[in-house]
């Protein structure tokens, strides 16, 4: 079984090493199933693909051929697709899909996507009437680059820090800000003959620069679809997060032309507004290999090894610092001193239910 990484040269060293380790483990799975496909390469793109011709040249014609997603336009693979425009005369990027944000408006937080500074100001001022607003550059990962603004002056300063071409070419998300946030990770993998669906919580940690960053995910993974997962005894809040993610996922299938994805992951927030009102909402999608994929591959291996296994709990962990050591039984995906991020450790483990 040949597994090929379709890599982004801009990735950090630790990211490339982690992806290579994941690819090596994928190579042990029966990814194509039938013998006549044994020589066909299985592709793992490091980002969501948005060139259908390129996908075909890579040999991707179905979900069985790759681990990730394909969308018709670059913006559709980012968080820009989650919210609608601020008004009918707002600027939009080429190929904008208004039907999708309209379909998911009840399962996301209050917010807008803007493709001009003028529209961003209008959207921000409207949202500020209900409380603080979070500015979210759409290409940033793991919450980096986001700014919270509480008044018009801060909104202007936040927009001034962004280059106009970045907004016009990629878009900017403006969204209500929540306090006391818990983030759920909900997803579905369609690999070989397996469909597995999961829900879990994300953790944060402190990196070598003292910043709060993604620290891993703890997932309950069920063999089967969303209905199967929801038959597992999950906390009520996790059930709510799963329902919201499912609605978002189904909307993608209905309203994004040419959409194809074998790795479907959604971040769902639970938190409170400044007035104390509890809010749930899908923050964004990840139709590409991601931070939880070290845990995901362990779950796939477990289901592949035991045809009777119905549910498994897995965790991905990322820690920083020279003294980090993996616990006994952990599967290490990266351990070293990255030139850009410093010493860090990435591992995954199967945990008891």
Task: Characterise the protein shown here.
- The protein has 2 domains: 3-73 and 180-351, no CATH class; 78-107 and 110-177, Dna Ligase, domain 1.
- It contains 9 helices and 16 strands.
- The chain has helices spanning 13-26, 52-57, 99-104, 117-128, 152-160, 164-170, 226-230, 236-255, 293-305; strands at 3-6, 42-45, 69-70, 111-114, 133-137, 147-149, 172-176, 179-191, 194-206, 212-223, 260-261, 263-272, 278-286, 311-320, 331-338, 342-351.
- An 8-stranded antiparallel β-sheet has the order 13-12-8-9-10-14-16-15. The chain has a 4-stranded antiparallel β-sheet with strand order 4-7-5-6. Strands 1-2 form a two-stranded parallel sheet.
- The two termini are 32 Å apart.
- The mean pLDDT is 92.
Task: Name some characteristics of this structure.
Dna Ligase, domain 1; alpha+beta; 2 domains; 9 helices; single chain
Concise description?
With 353 residues, the protein is of the alpha+beta class. It folds into 2 domains: 243 residues, no CATH class; 98 residues, ATP-grasp fold, A domain (Dna Ligase, domain 1), CATH 3.30.1490.20.
């Amino acid at each position: 079984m040949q597994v090929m990484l379709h890599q982004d040269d801009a990735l950090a060293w630790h990211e490339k090493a982690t992806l290579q380790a994941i690819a090596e483990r994928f190579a042990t799975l029966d990814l194509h199933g039938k013998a006549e496909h044994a020589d066909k390469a299985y592709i793992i793109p490091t980002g969501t693909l948005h060139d259908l011709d390129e996908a075909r040249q890579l040999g991707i014609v179905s979900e069985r051929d790759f681990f990730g997603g394909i969308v018709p336009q670059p913006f559709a693979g980012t968080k820009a697709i989650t919210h609608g425009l601020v008004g009918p005369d707002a600027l939009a990027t080429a190929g904008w899909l208004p039907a999708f944000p309209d379909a998911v408006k009840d399962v996301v937080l209050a917010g807008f996507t803007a493709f001009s500074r003028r529209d961003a100001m209008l959207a921000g001022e409207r949202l500020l009437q209900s409380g603080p607003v979070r500015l979210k550059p759409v290409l940033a990962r793991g919450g980096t680059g986001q700014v919270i603004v509480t008044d018009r002056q801060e909104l202007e300063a936040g927009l001034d820090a962004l280059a106009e071409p970045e907004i016009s070419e990629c878009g900017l998300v403006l969204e209500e800000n929540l306090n006391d946030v818990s983030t759920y990770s909900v997803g579905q993998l369609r690999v070989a003959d397996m469909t597995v669906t999961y829900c879990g919580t994300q953790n944060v940690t402190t990196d070598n620069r003292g910043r709060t960053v993604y620290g891993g995910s703890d997932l309950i993974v069920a063999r089967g679809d969303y209905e199967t997962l929801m038959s597992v005894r999950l906390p009520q809040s996790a059930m709510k997060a799963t329902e919201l993610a499912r609605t978002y996922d189904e909307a993608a299938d209905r309203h994004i032309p040419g959409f194809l994805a074998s790795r479907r992951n959604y971040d769902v927030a639970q938190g409170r507004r400044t007035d104390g009102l509890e809010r749930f909402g899908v923050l964004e999608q990840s139709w590409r290999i991601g931070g939880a994929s070290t845990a995901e591959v362990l779950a796939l291996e477990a289901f592949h090894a035991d045809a009777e296994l119905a549910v498994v709990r897995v965790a991905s962990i990322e820690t920083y610092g020279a003294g980090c050591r993996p616990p006994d039984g952990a599967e290490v995906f990266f351990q070293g001193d990255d030139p850009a991020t410093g010493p860090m450790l990435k591992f995954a483990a199967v945990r008891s239910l």
